[in-house]
């Protein structure tokens, strides 16, 4: 089946609005003969004469009168689709954004992000969902708007990526814990009772660093949950939690934190999104605020 020429909708809209081939030609900047040929194509496409002569003027047929409003609306909607998006009205914005992120990121940065968004766009809702794996499917399928995490070799290359901050692991114990006093050596650190948090990586950087020194830590509790649970356990026990510093900055308040006495690499936490949302004004606005709350955390850490 031959597809109709949608350009004829514009021609039909102008013809029905003007009721004159000459005036329609002027609006579309065509010659009268070119406009007559265009009218002939529209008549063929619709199977109706649309405009017929009555004395010195053209009058619409019943089909033309029935189509007039519908065609005008179609043309207006088409022009709106092809028109650049205007300025975003945040006070009128009503939208729910879904962020897939770690429990620690949501608890540490979430409150500031919610406050920022609410101050500018009260109709915006934020939905945090857990991140059980590195699968890029939710971003690709559109069930997730934004994601935070460490970019891996398995991360889909089509995704847009922007670094948010660098992070490193620190040790956390309750006040009065033996490791809260004196120098923390690799041997003292390894000799304690530890909380382990399951990760996607094949090798744990903490255990790898200890193994190079001929040491091994005793994992007393293993968690599948996020680092916030490890911090909560360390707060009320003699266990040692080893957690990312930036992700748990607020959660570690009142606890004793110490640099690891090990050579462990820092890692970059990034913001990820699908390219179809790259130019979306509301999405750009959200990304800007996510970067801002992370940058604010950097400023606090440097002071």
Termini Cα gap: 69 Å
Helical run tally: 10
**Largest beta sheet, briefly?**
5 strands, mixed
Strand content: 15-25%
Low-confidence stretches: none
Task: Identify the CATH class of the largest domain.
Answer: Alpha Beta
Instruction: Write down the Rg.
Output: 32 Å
Number of domains: 3
Structural class: alpha/beta
What portion of residues is helical? 40-55%
For CATH, the homologous superfamily of the largest domain is named as Periplasmic binding protein-like II
Report strand order across the widest sheet: 4-3-5-12-6
The helix-strand sequence is HHHEEHEHEHEEEHEHEHEEEH
Q: Please tell me the CATH architecture of the largest domain by its name.
A: 3-Layer(aba) Sandwich
Q: If you average the pLDDT, what whole number results? A: 88
> What would you call the shape?
rod-shaped
Number of E-type strands: 12
CATH fold-type name of the largest domain: D-Maltodextrin-Binding Protein, domain 2
Descriptive notes:
By secondary structure, the chain is of the alpha/beta class. The protein folds into three domains: 76 residues, Arc Repressor Mutant, subunit A, CATH 1.10.10.10; 112 residues, Periplasmic binding protein-like II (D-Maltodextrin-Binding Protein, domain 2, 3-Layer(aba) Sandwich); 97 residues, 3-Layer(aba) Sandwich (D-Maltodextrin-Binding Protein, domain 2). Helices cover 41% and strands 21% of the residues. The protein has a five-stranded mixed sheet, with helices on one face. A five-stranded mixed sheet has the order 9-8-10-7-11, covered by helices on one side. α5 links the parallel β3 and β4. α1 crosses α2. It starts with 6 loop residues before the first helix and ends with a helix. The mean pLDDT is 88.
